[in-house]
Amino acid sequence: MTSDSQIKSAANHRRTASSVMTTLTAICAFFAVTILALIIGYIALRGLSAISFQFLTDTPKPVGEGGGIGNAILGSLVLLLLASVIGLPFGIAVGVYLAEFGDGRFASVVRFVTDTLTGVPSIVIGVFVYTIIVLPMRQFSAFAGGIALAIVMIPIVARTTEEMIRLVPTSLREGALALGAPQWKVTTGVVLPAAASGIATGAMLAVARVSGETAPLLFTAFGSRFFNVYLDQPIASLTVQIYNYAISPYDEWHAMAWAATLVLMTLILAINITVRFFTRKKI
Amino acid sequence: MQNLQPNIPTPATTHGASARAWNWRRTFAPTGNTGDTVFRLALFGAAFFLMLVVLVMIGAMAVNSLPSLRQFGFGFLTSRVWSPISGDFGALPFIYGTIVSSLLALLISVPLSLGIAIFLVEQAPRGVARPVGFLVELLAAIPSVVYGLWGIFVLAPFLREWIEPFLARWFGWLPLFRGNVTGIGLFTGGIILAIMITPIITAVVRDVLAAVPVSQREAALALGATKWETTRVVLNNGAPGIAGAIILGLGRAIGETMAVTMVIGNRAQISASLFEPAYTIASVLANEFTEATGELYLSALIELGLILFLVTFTVNGAARLLVWSVAHRAGGGAVGRA
Asked: Which residues contact A156 (CB under 8 A, 6 or more apart)?
């Protein structure tokens, strides 16, 4: 970069500096996009060569005998369902509270803590759920995994819900109130439906985010080699399965890790791109 | 990883609207309506319960780390020995690994993120900024374990073959770049972290820059400033917010678990060389928690979890306050939700 004296002496230097820096910022952006392309490219390349119908439906087997991720896919779905059932209503309720009653001091604290909670590492939430659920139950369980994921989900859902509800014009509320509706009916019957698509978007992104979580599941849901739908038993998940395959010493399992990653990334990218498509106008 | 939604808009009028809503509520709030009372209590209950969860979180971890707290006290933070066999537990190697890998990540990620954000807000035409911005956001949507997988099989071999030998050859006189070149270690951990926190810092800086009033740019341009000089004016304006974004990235790097665990080597040691294996707080939790035998071992790990919680909570809180301060000063509400 040029110093001040040079800037004064020659406008050329300033123009050069400007175009150099402009180019550098473009290179930064290009670099990030290249990394994304490299990651997705590798997943597609290595994943597609290892994926098969049998792989998608089978349970894990010892090295050399094939096996698949059928139980992990089922386990992830069970965990996501459980997390959504707990986390979405809870998160939306907190979001509605912040948007509709969010002017007091307590609400500011809630907003701040909720925001800060989104930055707390998910592994810490795993440790927490271990101490309050796994230790008393003396067993890893799908239930504990679902709770852990729900706790990750709640602050995300709460903040997006709040923002979406704040977008609803005040006049809509005033109109409903003027017609004599009590506030709870105004919120549930007028405000929430008006913000529904935005809230759904936030919910979908939260599900996408949680579906990639591994750390909070390691010592809550733990993992399993079998098909399981019982909530009091350990349960497999795609992410933990990917982790176990990836750190194993076997090439065959590495290939399976890539294939399982392809399945996971397809789900996550599909959600993200769908959301982007539907919110395009607003952006 | 966190949920990034700089693309969900909040108009600059949010604060005005909420102020109006407040007055309106004060004036028209219905009283003595059972439905409303129940409704309010239910919503308040949800918010209150969430606060309770956070308090219980701290309490449960504190109680469960008591055996370790009693046994080691403050020495836990300064001891270099981590030996489950002899029952000696010290957190220093993990603290060191966490700090060094996070700082390395920031060193790489901050200029990169600033560059991307400036490109997206100040330079790129709309038709380019939108898709590129979306692609950078997608980086944040990739799960940690996937970064880890990619790190083990693509990034680590690449660094081992190309980057690390180069650094060892030309900068080997620094203790930082001595030692065995294996591709697995602090250096790789820092780089994978840098990639992971880049979309997060970028998203917040982007919002901060977008919140700087256009008049600032017009003023600079009117004085004859070049494009880059104008950008520097904008950067100065958003400085506190950018600081907040960087701290937010730091918080994320400190707590990042799976990807780092998979590439950092997981050895509890303190070495001057970046090429040596290391260990972070989050990694040791991921690796040893299910294997922890004995009360003391488990409570030492839970104490590590508690430390991680308190540190990231503080760091994130500070970042939020910084980012919020810029958002409010600029009169926009669109900042700091990333």
From this structure: A91, A118, A202, A205, A206, A209, B2, B3
- The three-state secondary structure class of A15 is helix
CATH 3.40.50.2300 corresponds to the domain B93-330: no
All structural domains of chain B with their residue ranges: 93-330
**Contact of B89 with B82, CB cutoff 8 Å:** yes
Helices A192-211, A70-100: inter-axial angle, 10-degree rounding:
140
Question: One-letter amino acid identity for A280?
Answer: R
pTM for the model: 0.90
Interface of A with B in 201-230 (CB under 8 A): 201-202, 205-206, 208-209, 211-215, 218-219, 222
Q: What is the β-pairing status of strands B88-89 and B82-83?
A: antiparallel
Contacts of B165 (CB under 8 A, 6+ apart): B181
Q: What is the pLDDT, as a whole number, of residue A64? A: 87
When the candidates are 1.10.3720.10, 3.30.70.1730, 1.10.287.3510, 3.90.226.10, the CATH number that belongs to A53-279 is 1.10.3720.10
Per-residue pLDDT band for B301 (boundaries 50, 70, 90) equals very high
Tens of pLDDT, residues A19-36: 999 999 999 999 999 999
- Owner of token pair 């180069």: B166
Angle of CA points B1, B140, B310, to nearest 5°: 25
Nearest Cα to Cα of residue B308 among B130, B151, B122, B77? B77
pLDDT band, very low/low/confident/very high, at B180 (cuts 50, 70, 90)? confident
Give me B225's structure tokens.
């400033």
Domain boundaries, given as residue ranges, for chain A: 4-50, 53-279
Quickly state the pLDDT bin for A75 (edges 50, 70, 90). Answer: very high
CB distance B188 to B264 below 8 Å: yes
Is there a contact between A26 and B123 if contact means CB atoms under 8 Å apart? yes
- Interface list for B 140-159 with A (CB within 8 A): 141-150, 152-154
Does any CB of chain B come closer than 8 Å to the CB of residue A123?
yes
By three-state DSSP, how is residue A67 classified? Answer: strand
H or E segment and range at residue B253: helix B239-255
CB contact under 8 A, A209 and B1: yes
